[in-house]
Amino acid sequence: MEEKNKKKTGMGIAALTLGIISIVSALFWYMSIPTSILAIIFGIISIKKVGSNLGKAGLITGIIGISLCVFNYISMIIILVLANVI
After folding, report:
1. How far apart, in whole angstroms, are the C-alpha atoms of residue 18 and residue 61?
2. Which of 68, 59, 86 lies closest to 26, judged by CA?
3. The whole model's pTM is what?
4. Distance CA 4, CA 64 (A)
5. Which one has a higher pLDDT value, 31 or 84?
6. Among 33, 41, 43, 83, which is disulfide-ready with 59 (CB 3.0 to 4.6 Å)?
7. With b meaning 16 or more CB within 10 Å and e meaning fewer, what string describes 29-61?
8. Interatomic CA distance for residues 81 and 79, integer angstroms
9. pLDDT at 52 over 90
10. In the chain, what are the domain boundaries?
């Protein structure tokens, strides 16, 4: 029984770790987007199977990480377009 709980909580820990990595590496899309997507997937699986708080935290950090990455690149595109207009 303990082995099943360890495996299930491992998904929550993995989700949280990947979510934190996605936030830290938000400027690098090739790292941030895959880790965010994996954090969201692992978080959802962990929440459905166990109801883990670490899974919820991983899901939230994954969403924040992908949002930061998208925001950074949209703002860079807007800045480049405005720089060429002026």
Report:
1. 8
2. 68
3. 0.84
4. 29
5. 31
6. 43
7. eebbbebbebbbbbbbbbbeebebebbbbbbbb
8. 5
9. no
10. 2-85
